[in-house]
Specification:
The chain is of the alpha+beta class. It is 35% helix and 43% strand. Strands 1, 2, 3, 4, 5, 6 and 7 form a seven-stranded mixed β-sheet that branches. A hairpin with a 7-residue loop joins strand 1 and strand 2. The longest helix is centred in the first third of the chain and has 17 residues. The radius of gyration is 14 Å and the shape is globular. The termini are far apart.
């Protein structure tokens, strides 16, 4: 696939995320996706496979009582099979809220998202929020 096609894969993924379309999100992922969740918190680490990634995403929703959302996605930038974007996310739970910027880097392979790396503006604050 070329760079423009890889950007389309990632664009469709973020559109599915914005709609809450879990089927669309899952359709964007390779079966053997690797999700690199940064930090030292309970949710940090490498999550392999769709089931593990969906379990992680479910934890974001559970721990934020369904409030976690990406409320802004910046322009997509790509080089070969890597696509990156800046974004802003937020979430709330009793007694705590988080809102910060980040960078996502996604590697596309054979028309599917094969790897995801996340970078947060304040990793310590994110670790504290998620527990």
């Amino acid at each position: 696939m070329n760079t423009a096609q890889n950007m389309d894969v990632v664009r469709r993924y973020f559109e599915a995320v914005a709609r809450g379309d879990l089927g669309g999100v899952g359709a964007a992922f390779s079966a053997d996706i690797e999700w690199h969740q940064p930090g030292k918190g309970a949710l940090s680490g490498l999550h392999r496979g769709k089931a593990a990634v969906f379990a992680l995403l479910g934890q974001f929703m559970q721990r934020s009582q369904g409030s976690f959302r990406i409320d802004k996605v910046g322009p997509l930038m790509a080089q070969g099979d890597l696509v990156s974007t800046s974004l802003h996310f937020c979430a709330e739970k009793p007694g705590s809220a988080i809102a910060m910027s980040g960078i996502d880097v996604l590697r596309v392979e054979n028309g599917l998202i094969r790897e995801v790396w996340l970078f947060s503006e304040d990793q310590d604050a994110e670790d504290a929020f998620w527990g």
